[in-house]
Specification:
The chain is an alpha+beta fold. The protein has two domains: 273 residues, Butyryl-CoA Dehydrogenase, subunit A, domain 2 (Beta Barrel), CATH 2.40.110.10; 182 residues, Butyryl-CoA Dehydrogenase, subunit A, domain 3. The chain has 18 helices and 14 strands. The chain has a six-stranded mixed β-sheet with strand order 2-1-10-11-7-6, with no helix packed on it. It is globular and about 75 Å long. The chain binds flavin-adenine dinucleotide. Flavin-adenine dinucleotide binds next to strand 5, helix 16 and helix 17.
Length: 485
């Protein structure tokens, strides 16, 4: 099924409990902190089933049209098809909504390729993964994930209420309590995937549980951070933050019942991480992340070029170098994305997945470079943003508008367009919303130090050492020959 934006919005009115400060939000589709972003997600649901996109965005399974990201890839062509679907979702959201509806299902598709890993924990958990993927696919559902225990609860021994843990079992499943972080897009999702991607210690067996839960499950509450959408003045002054604020939330569990068929790992500490790293789950999920970043980078490059143009700087060699670095970076990432697909890897089951090395190189590149990219483009704006009048009321017809048009226009652009451009660039690169994105890109795939380690773990070190061995052997041989002569 390919659901409509209208059906998606209706599904959000399900009694979920969302805390914005002390306020309990009753409907995210109408609340000023969330409604525009909810519409942006709904728009993606509509766009992907529109005649011009449906082929690229869907595939057939058992005679039914399903979203492309639910497909388990068996060929390189399948990977290309999935990639194009990720790219379009990212394009429609300017690369600003990282946990869009194509993110978490990609992890679960990867996990479903190795159900035996889950069965080793408990017979039936492998089937639970397959059934859960089926459930998401059939309903075209939106899932987020929270795979960390909050920093303050890590390693806490004893009965801290915040500490996430299994608190009991009931006839049909398990009962959990405590906090999980950080649910980006959680308020806009149907479902949440809960687990831990960071290693758990041997004494943390009570936290070793991975499961899925509906956002409106009894006992679940989402505590969201400050809303940028709520503080966005207008579509002109805050183009991005007014409509692409995917939000982040801590999820609180108060004795929440999870049925066994939604449990995928139970009291098995190694499996908590292995399900991401010993299946293609982590790489398929983060392939989406790389496409999302590349669309954002395209937008930033366009802004950089336009800023240089407005400043009459395009012929300055130093500015050309800045733009050249940006263009080279964009091409580097696109090249890595191609290599992820064209050097795909195959499993004995016949499934294929993106290439590990190129995926982790891409993830590392994004995490390490975003800050510098944003900074360089912000520098190009100079003091321009502070020359602009206070708000977009200056665009309304009248005496002030006429003075503004006359004095702020450039040879190639009206003052009104210049105003819109500068506000757009500021919202993306320098606002409160932009600050969140800088942090986001750093932590997107995990903490920064791990970004390097993924590549350390997957590099062909033995092969590299062979080249060195060959030269050393050559030197030894030559010395021995000289000695013998
Ligand atoms: C905007 C945003 C959105 C997010 N969305 C999600 C989401 O949707 N789902 C989800 O599950 N998570 C999400 N996260 C959480 C993200 O996965 C974590 O931020 C990330 O894994 C790091 O964990 P932490 O924040 O607890 O940092 P910590 O682990 O506490 O690390 C803090 C700092 O210490 C450094 N550090 C810690 N240990 C070491 C070490 N041994 N060696 C060197 N340096 C070290 C880290 O590199 C980091 O700079 C999001 C984070 C942000 C910022």
């Amino acid at each position: 099924m390919l659901r409509t934006g209208k059906d998606y919005l209706a599904s959000l009115r399900d009694g979920r409990r969302i805390r914005l400060g002390k306020e309990l939000v009753s409907d995210v589709t109408t609340h000023p902190a969330f409604r525009n972003t909810a519409q942006s997600f709904a728009r993606i649901y509509d766009l992907k089933r529109s005649p011009e996109n449906i082929e690229a965005m869907s595939y057939q399974e058992n005679g039914e049209s399903c979203s492309a990201w639910f497909q388990a890839p068996h060929t390189r062509e399948d990977l290309r098809h999935r990639a194009e679907a990720h790219r379009r979702v990212a394009q429609w959201s300017c690369g600003l909504m990282g946990r869009s509806m194509d993110h978490v299902p990609s992890f679960i598709v990867g996990m479903s390729m190795k159900p035996e890993l889950f069965d080793a924990n408990r017979c039936g958990f492998g089937q639970n993964i397959i059934n859960y993927l089926d459930y998401l696919r059939k309903g075209d559902l939106f899932a987020c994930y929270l795979v960390l225990t909050p920093q303050t609860s890590r390693g806490v021994v004893g009965p801290s209420k915040a500490n996430f843990r299994i608190v009991g079992e009931y006839d049909g499943g398990i009962i959990v309590s405590g906090q999980k972080m950080l649910g980006t897009s959680a308020v806009f999702s149907d479902e949440a995937w809960i687990g831990s991607m960071i290693p758990l210690g041997p004494d943390q067996v009570e936290e070793a549980v991975t499961f899925a839960v509906p956002i409106n499950a009894p006992g679940v509450e989402l505590w969201v951070r400050k809303s940028f959408e709520l503080n966005a003045k207008s579509r002109i002054d805050n183009y991005f933050s007014s409509q692409f604020d995917e939000s982040d939330a801590v999820m609180i569990f108060n004795d929440v019942k999870i049925p066994w068929d939604r449990v995928f790992c139970y009291r098995d500490i190694p499996l908590m991480r292995d399900m991401y790293f010993k299946t293609p789950g982590h790489v398929l999920g983060n392939h989406q992340s790389n496409w999302r970043f590349s669309e954002k980078l395209k937008l930033i490059s366009g802004i950089a070029h336009q800023a240089a143009d407005y400043g009459n700087l395009l012929s300055v060699p130093a500015i050309q170098q800045t733009l050249g670095r940006l263009a080279a970076g964009e091409a580097t990432l696109l090249g890595l994305l191609c290599a992820q697909i064209e050097q795909s890897q195959q499993l004995p089951s016949g499934h294929v997945h993106v290439n590990y090395r190129y995926l982790y190189a891409g993830l590392q590149w994004c995490a390490h470079n975003y800050f510098q990219i944003a900074e360089e483009v912000r520098l190009l704006l100079g003091a321009g943003p502070f020359m602009m009048p206070a708000d977009d009321s200056i665009l309304e017809e009248g005496e002030a508008h006429d003075v503004f048009e006359e004095n702020w226009k450039l040879p190639s652009v009206t003052a009104s367009e210049r105003y819109r451009f500068v506000r757009m660039a500021w919202d993306l690169l320098a606002s409160d919303f932009a600050g969140r994105h800088q942090q986001y890109e750093r932590f997107y795939g995990g903490p920064p130090h791990i970004m390097d380690l993924y590549s350390f773990w997957h590099a062909p070190w033995a092969e590299r050492r062979e080249g060195v061995r060959h030269i050393l052997d050559d030197m030894i041989n030559e010395s021995q020959q000289l000695a013998a002569e």
